[in-house]
Design brief:
Layout lengths: L1 H27 L22 E4 L2 E6 L4 E6 L6 E2 L4 E5 L2 H29 L5 H27 L1 E3 L4 E6 L6 E2 L4 E7 L4 E4 L3
Antiparallel strand pairs: 1-10, 2-9, 3-5, 3-8, 4-7, 5-6, 7-9
Helix pairs in contact: 2-3
Amino acid sequence: MIMTVQLRSLSCALLATVAAVATANAESSPKYVKTMIVPSAEPTQTRRFFGQIAALETVDLSFEVGGRLEELDATEGARIREGARLATLALAPFRRGLERAELALVQAERDLERARRLAETSAGSEVRALDAETARDLASVALREARDALSDAKINAPFDGLIARRIAAEHSTGEPVLPIFRVHDMSQVRVEFELP
């Protein structure tokens, strides 16, 4: 038992000696500190510019034909989808014009057939047959124009956008090429400002 006590006191003494040596070494060894020179901050300038939001494109929409404005569906500030109907003229006069053009074409084809038969039997002149063919071609052109006028009596949105201004009123008479709407293409929003 005496030996165990002596071993313990020897190990305690040994540990105390190691701790004292470590403390002495720690106090005597120099401590290194990393240093840096920090430059002074440059003064920053803040500038403020005033601008306005601008659309990618602004378009004035109008009819290609004249007539009484029957339907006006868009209001200022409304968002519109591509292909949406915005305005329509009274369609009855355009439908009657289309019907007249169709009947004129049918009559011109009958006249052409009759003039050709008479020219083949020498009962009519070749010039009369050529004139009938020209009349048929003119009636065909008139029919295409009547169809175009009927489709031009409607305004559809050319792109997704925003109605910026409604220029005409419902039931007013629309003249060709006079603007009805001003539409902004807002697919890309831009900010415009002036720099000094």
